[in-house]
Amino acid sequence: MAPSFEDGNSVFEFVVRRGNGVKGLVDSGLSKVPEAYVQPPKERIDKENAVKHGLPPIDLSKLDGFGPDHDEVVDQIVKAAETLGFFQVVNHGVPLHLLESLKDTAHYFFSLPPQRKAVYRSDVSPSPLVKYGTSFMPEKEKALEWKDYILMQYTNDDEALQHWPQEIKGVLLEYLRSSIGMVKKLLQVLLGNFGIKPDDPMIDVLIGKKMLSMNFYPACPNPDLTVGVGRHSDMGTLTVLLQDGIGGLYVKMEQDIDYGKKGDWIEIPPTPNALVINVGDMLQILSNGKYKSAEHRVRTTSTSSRVSIPIFTMPRETTKIVPLPQVVEKDGTALYREFVLIDYMKNFFGNAHEGKKSLDFAQINPT
């Protein structure tokens, strides 16, 4: 007989304090979503009325040459960052067998016994580099997110090999190593648009810190009532995301473009062999608002469990962030103030997801 979760406190105790996660709820035999996960109507995802993102993925192999193909790809990357803040890439240099291995490994890790995962809960984890959790900020959320995750900070290979979970560290390190060259190429294009040289040390500064996550969204009995991840933008510079074939990623339009209008939610459908790239808050601030750190969220599904594996790149905590002077000079005014990244991080990780509200911390005149 499935346990009863009639009140939010019992759910919180079972899922968060015991470290069972949402998967533990599902494994207990739930037939309906507990009240603690039921989102307010305005936060639920209307799958039927979302716009389908119809643009083909960007072929990064064309960046390696010169001529019209190279210039066309540069234009595609810049336009995507200026409008939606999301785009998909193929021929990215990450081995395709690795992408499949990552998805298989994520499913394997979350199928482990609860006690094997719970040792990494933030209050007991043997390392500050590794955190296993559920939802984003359970203590502050009005409704919990239907998601479990394992989050790892990367400092160097030795520390990762020592502290990351045995079952996943090898494949995640390979994912990071094979992706970082692509991230540099994309930043060279995006910053080159402002006149910054490809060998400028700023590019390495902007990705001086990396975090990797494996996310697990168990099959949900009432997906229309829940969200896998609530509305938010990513905090860092660029995010690389591997999503599986199930889908569920939605991005909000900040302006009218060819295939949608401002305020529409656009579904980013899974594309075989592709990775999803999205702009983070730091790149929006550096570009003085030219590039958009898109607001996005994730829907759950009743048919099967879904996994996604993001790499978050960002500057180190002590880095000072301020809009690029050449962009401010051209614009005539700075939209964001100078700050140290650690202060932005404390604000970001100290609040529940609420769209792009995290940017208010740095905005000179928040709307």
Task: Chart the SSEs and their pairings.
Layout: H1 8-17, H2 21-27, E1 51-52, E2 58-59, H3 68-83, E3 86-90, H4 96-110, H5 114-118, E4 130-134, E5 148-154, H6 157-163, H7 169-192, H8 202-206, E6 209-217, E7 229-232, E8 238-243, E9 249-252, E10 265-267, E11 275-279, H9 281-286, E12 296-298, E13 306-314, E14 320-321, H10 325-331, E15 339-340, H11 341-349
Parallel strand pairs: 1-10, 2-3
Antiparallel strand pairs: 3-11, 4-5, 5-6, 6-13, 7-12, 8-11, 8-13, 9-10, 9-12, 14-15
Helix pairs in contact: 1-2, 4-7
- Spatial order of the strands in the main sheet? 2-3-11-8-13-6-5-4
Report the strand count.
15
Task: Tell me the domain tally.
Answer: 1
What's the number of helices?
Answer: 11
Please, what is the oligomeric state?
Answer: single chain
CATH first level: Mainly Beta
Rg on CA atoms, Å: 20 Å
Mean pLDDT: 90
Helix content: 25-40%
Low-confidence runs of at least 5 consecutive residues: none
Main sheet attributes: strand count, strand direction, barrel closure: 8 strands, mixed
Distance between the termini: 50 Å
